[in-house]
């Protein structure tokens, strides 16, 4: 780590944000861990790094650990904090858009830490802010700083990340911590066993991305050795596409779970459920921890918990969830110091250009199928945008919440014609010329004619 002797504000084109776990490369992540480990030796010894810097906490949803650990981290770096922990009492109550809010707050602070109920809100904020933006959770989309805390705990406790065998259990559909965590585990070539509560399985777009971008192979798993924890769950095993890494299972015909390095539990995210039931939710107790596959497993949880981890596990040395929470301070110190330019890290990625993230759609309804995406919840203030995922077939995702666009029709801005997305013509269009259309009626109403 080295201090950067500069008090000048960064130009927006050079700003690094942490909106998604994808914003940091693997080398940067390990560099953050090394910095956090150095900070944790004496948390009070680093106030010289960010004197005069201010972090603004904009929390549109409740938070205890994330907000307090970020504010503690900034104070320990020698900076200050501005807290808006109940945004309903701020100008948002008067109808101010998130885009306007972050533009204003950028003039008050050197970094913005944002929590928001809409997926893609942090990406929107990063687009308009002139200071670094950190995603502290956007709906059920991502929570990258929690993921870094989780990975850091695994790295400290196990000494490595590559090849670990990790069970993810509970609400895998709506838990944003799970979505960030599973992408990061895949990047570090971990083996992942998904044990969801029935009806709360991983979203299809997450599985598709794991397969296409990280080379994981989803295989049905026999999790009966996990006892009541698995229950009626339809367990799935995700492994890097290498046959020798099928070591978790005793035989290919059964694919039984044999040994686990860490069990990551999540609470039911009932505030985001759409009719799903959380009855008979899985529970980890002393009997669970006595099972052979979990004999040496760490028990992790992003907290807060309800009843999914019994208090009897609190005194078990394998239960590291309170250590995990405490480690949020040094890891967020490392994040803040890095984004504010106070320390350098190896393997730093170039700042992504706007054109690599956003391809704006012309005025019209949002093509994003996710109704809780920021393009729907702030429709008056947000121009929908997409990010190209593939050409053959033509695939794109919402640039804000990463949900794949289901639009069956594609139009050309210049030709003012449209055709099926699967057509050769559509696949040949320049990315800046593409318009995703919901149906033929919408296409005609917007002035497109069928080829």
Provide the low-confidence segments as ranges.
2-11, 243-254
Taking the sheet with the most strands, its summary is: 6 strands, mixed
Number of helical elements: 13
Structural class: alpha/beta
Share in β-strands: 15-25%
Helix content: 25-40%
> What is the count of distinct domains?
3
* Element order: H for helix, E for strand: HEHEHEHEHEHEHEEEHEHHEHEEEEHEHE
Mean pLDDT: 85
Query: What is the CATH-assigned architecture of the largest domain?
Result: 3-Layer(aba) Sandwich
Terminal Cα span: 59 Å
Rg over CA atoms, rounded to whole Å, is 23 Å
Overall geometry comes to globular
CATH topology of the largest domain: Rossmann fold
CATH class of the largest domain: Alpha Beta
Strand arrangement in the largest pleated sheet: 7-8-6-5-9-10
CATH superfamily of the largest domain: Aspartate/ornithine carbamoyltransferase
Total beta strand runs? 17
EC number: 2.1.3.2
Keywords: Pyrimidine biosynthesis, Transferase
Family: Belongs to the aspartate/ornithine carbamoyltransferase superfamily.
GO molecular function: amino acid binding; aspartate carbamoyltransferase activity
Describe the structure.
It is a single chain. With 451 residues, the chain is α/β, with parallel strands linked by helices. It folds into 3 domains: 144 residues, Aspartate/ornithine carbamoyltransferase (Rossmann fold); 182 residues, 3-Layer(aba) Sandwich (Rossmann fold); 94 residues, SH3 type barrels (Roll). 26% of the residues lie in helices and 17% in strands. It is built from 13 helices and 17 strands. It has a 6-stranded mixed β-sheet. It has a 4-stranded parallel β-sheet with strand order 2-1-3-4. A 4-stranded mixed β-sheet has the order 16-14-15-17. Strand 14 and strand 15 form a beta hairpin. Helix 5 crosses helix 10. The radius of gyration is 23 Å and the shape is globular. The termini are far apart. The N terminus is likely disordered. Pfam families: OTCace (PF00185), OTCace_N (PF02729), PyrI_C (PF02748). One of its GO terms (biological process) is 'de novo' UMP biosynthetic process. It comes from Rohdeia mirabilis. Belongs to the aspartate/ornithine carbamoyltransferase superfamily. Its EC number is 2.1.3.2.
């Amino acid at each position: 780590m080295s201090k950067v002797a500069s008090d000048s504000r960064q130009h927006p084109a050079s700003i690094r944000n942490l909106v998604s776990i994808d914003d940091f490369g693997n080398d940067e992540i390990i560099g953050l861990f090394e910095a956090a480990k150095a900070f944790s030796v004496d948390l009070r010894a680093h106030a010289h790094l960010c004197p005069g810097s201010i972090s603004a906490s904009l929390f549109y949803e409740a938070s205890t650990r994330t907000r307090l650990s970020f504010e503690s981290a900034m104070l320990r770096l020698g900076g200050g904090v501005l807290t808006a922990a109940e945004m309903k009492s701020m100008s948002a109550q008067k109808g101010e858009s998130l885009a306007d809010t972050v533009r204003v707050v950028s003039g008050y602070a050197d970094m913005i830490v944002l929590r928001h109920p809409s997926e893609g809100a942090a990406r929107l904020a990063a687009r308009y802010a002139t200071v670094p933006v950190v995603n502290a959770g956007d709906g059920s989309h991502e929570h990258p700083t929690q993921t870094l805390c989780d990975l850091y705990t695994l790295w400290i406790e196990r000494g490595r990340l590559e090849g670990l065998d990790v069970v993810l259990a509970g609400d895998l559909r709506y838990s944003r911590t799970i979505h960030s965590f599973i992408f990061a585990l895949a990047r570090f070539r971990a083996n992942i066993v998904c044990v969801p509560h029935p009806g709360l399985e991983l979203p299809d777009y997450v599985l598709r991305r794991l397969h296409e971008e990280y080379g994981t192979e989803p295989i049905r798993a026999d999790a009966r050795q996990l006892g009541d924890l698995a229950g009626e769950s339809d367990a799935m095993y995700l492994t890097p596409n290498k046959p020798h890494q099928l070591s978790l299972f005793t035989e290919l015909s059964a694919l039984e779970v044999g040994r686990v390095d860490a069990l990551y539990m999540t609470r039911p995210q009932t505030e985001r459920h759409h009719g799903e039931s959380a009855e008979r939710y899985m529970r980890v107790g002393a009997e669970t921890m006595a099972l052979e596959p979990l004999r040496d497993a760490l028990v992790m949880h992003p907290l807060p918990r309800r009843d999914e981890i019994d208090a009897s596990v609190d005194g078990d040395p394998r239960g590291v969830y309170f250590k995990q929470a405490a480690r949020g301070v040094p890891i967020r110190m490392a994040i803040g110091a890095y984004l504010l330019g106070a320390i350098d890290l190896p393997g730093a990625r170039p700042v992504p250009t706007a054109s690599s993230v956003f391809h704006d759609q012309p005025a019209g309804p949002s093509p994003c199928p996710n109704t809780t995406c920021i393009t729907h919840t702030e429709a008056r203030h947000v121009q929908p945008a997409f990010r190209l995922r593939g050409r053959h077939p033509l695939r794109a995702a919402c640039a804000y919440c990463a949900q794949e666009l289901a639009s069956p029709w594609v139009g050309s801005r210049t030709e003012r014609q449209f055709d099926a997305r699967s057509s050769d013509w559509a696949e040949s269009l320049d990315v800046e010329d593409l318009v995703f259309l919901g149906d033929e009626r919408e296409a005609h109403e917007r002035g497109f004619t069928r080829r």
